[in-house]
Design brief:
Helix content: 25-40%
CATH topology of the largest domain: Rossmann fold
Structural class: alpha/beta
Number of helices: 16
Strand order of the largest sheet: 3-4-2-5-6-1-7
Distance between the termini: 36 Å
CATH class of the largest domain: Alpha Beta
Largest sheet: 7 strands, parallel
Number of strands: 14
CATH architecture of the largest domain: 3-Layer(aba) Sandwich
Order of helices and strands: HHEHEHEHEHEHHEHEEHEHEHEHEHEHEH
Number of domains: 2
Bound molecules: adenosine-5'-diphosphate, magnesium ion
């Protein structure tokens, strides 16, 4: 099914077209009408199946941009996911006037507060930071929330957010729609389901119906000065129909394109600085397979659907976990098989391990395998955070006056 067949606001449809989204993924097809019709929903589908847009598109459609109030609240387990979510909704909804915003820990509350004073229609939040806001400030008013979403509900349970979720759920006093998205359905989720979902529509996709699960993640560890050579060798021996090769900056992209041109024919280069007509014509030549290898910067690669790309190559290691997903999501789409190849140098080893874990990647190594255990100790994480700190005890918080007298939603 195509997005153009749905009764979407023209601005949303245009945004989707710009993002390169034409067909709904299976999870999007199954969840669109229950969400639009206001039903509660329980949806299970694996990572990479398009759950963000499954939720984001109908919600962007349902939001009334003229009402300056938080109408949708989305809870996610990590700050990376919060950012990814908000970015996707921004792309989907900005032409339609939908303003999303994310609050998460590890970032100044004051700055977040200032933004919250402006217009926010859709709030994405990690549970801990949201509760901080609710207890200690009046910056967030949830009284107009009509839809509550739990993304990665299974992950949130695993991370021990259950009391936080209970608290947030019970602080939404009005009737609202509740949507749960998860990749797995652990036993513990049953209590949340029976407590908070009313006659939910259940959508479960089995493996065959899932979208880009056929993506294999390859990695090669190399010294920085050997990296170009490693890439060239890889391109020569690998059976590639078409590849996107990512660089982190325009400057790098330019240099790499020149190097590759000495050896290979028909190299394309796409970056954020290109004028629209030029971009369109390069993309067109790539689509028509007149170009086999395309060097790209992140900005240029985002959201574009090159369904026939066989390889995504991270020549420069991507900044941030969501960037890895975005880049590699350009291949292995919609059931086709794809290969992601990432070159890793010493500098990136510190962040690699948490990226692999967060994206649940089972790496296939070419050549030497770095000792991540040792490296992790030596380098630590760049941002100085521990990974997925689990709460052993629920945090006791004093009730603030703001919440006394509120009637929690009935539990059944
Ligand atoms: P999930 O939350 O299920 O793990 P995401 O929402 O992160 O999956 O989506 C995975 C990738 O698929 C993203 O790169 C996203 O841009 C892309 N995507 C989602 N829906 C579509 C669509 N209808 N057409 C093309 N690409 C899509
Ligand atoms: Mg997701």
């Amino acid at each position: 099914m195509k997005f153009s067949e749905l009764d979407l606001k023209p601005e949303i449809l245009t945004a989707l077209t710009n993002m390169g989204y034409q067909d709904l993924t299976p999870i999007q097809e199954k969840t669109f009408s229950p969400i639009i019709s206001g039903r509660d929903l329980l949806a299970r589908a694996e990572t990479g199946s398009g759950k963000t847009a499954a939720c984001g598109i109908p919600l962007a459609q349902m939001i009334d941009p003229s009402l300056n109030a938080i109408q949708v609240l989305i809870l996610v387990p990590t700050r990376e996911l919060a950012l990814q979510y908000v970015e996707e909704i921004h792309r989907i909804g900005k032409l339609a006037g939908v303003v999303p915003f994310a609050v998460f820990g590890g970032f100044s509350m004051e700055i977040q507060k200032a933004k919250l004073r402006d217009r926010v229609h859709l709030l994405v939040a990690t549970p801990g930071r949201l509760i901080d806001f609710l207890y200690n400030t009046t910056a967030i008013d949830l009284s107009s929330v009509r839809t509550l979403v739990l993304d990665e509900a299974d992950e949130m349970l695993k991370m021990g957010f259950i009391e936080d979720i209970d608290f947030i759920m019970s602080s939404l006093i009005h009737e609202h729609q509740t949507l749960f998205f998860a990749a797995t359905m652990p036993k513990e989720i049953d209590r949340l389901i029976s407590a908070y979902l009313k006659e939910p529509v259940r959508v479960e996709l089995n493996k065959e119906q899932l979208s880009p699960q056929s993506l294999v993640h390859h990695f090669q560890y190399t010294e920085r000065r050997d990296r170009l050579n490693a890439l060239i060798q890889y391109l020569k021996k690998e059976k590639i129909s078409q590849a996107l090769i990512f660089c982190n900056s325009r400057h790098h992209g330019e240099k790499l394109k020149k190097e590759l041109e000495r050896i290979f024919k028909s190299i394309g280069y796409i970056h954020g600085g290109l004028e629209q007509p030029k971009r369109t014509s390069i993309f067109e030549r790539f689509r028509q397979k007149k170009i086999d290898l395309m060097v790209a910067t992140d900005l240029a690669g985002r959201g574009l659907d090159f369904s026939h790309v066989s390889h995504v190559i991270n020549y420069d290691y991507p900044f941030g976990q969501e960037s890895y997903t975005h880049r590699t999501g350009r291949t292995g789409r919609m059931g086709r098989s794809g290969i992601a190849m990432t070159f890793v140098t010493d500098e990136e080893l510190g962040v690699l391990k948490s990226m692999l874990k967060a994206n649940r990647i089972d790496p296939v190594w070419h050549g030497n395998i770095p000792n991540l255990q040792a490296v992790h100790k030596q380098y630590g994480r760049r941002d100085g955070k521990k990974h997925f700190k689990r709460r052993s005890q629920p945090v006791q918080r004093a009730k603030s006056p703001q919440f006394t007298g509120m009637v929690p939603t009935p539990l059944s």
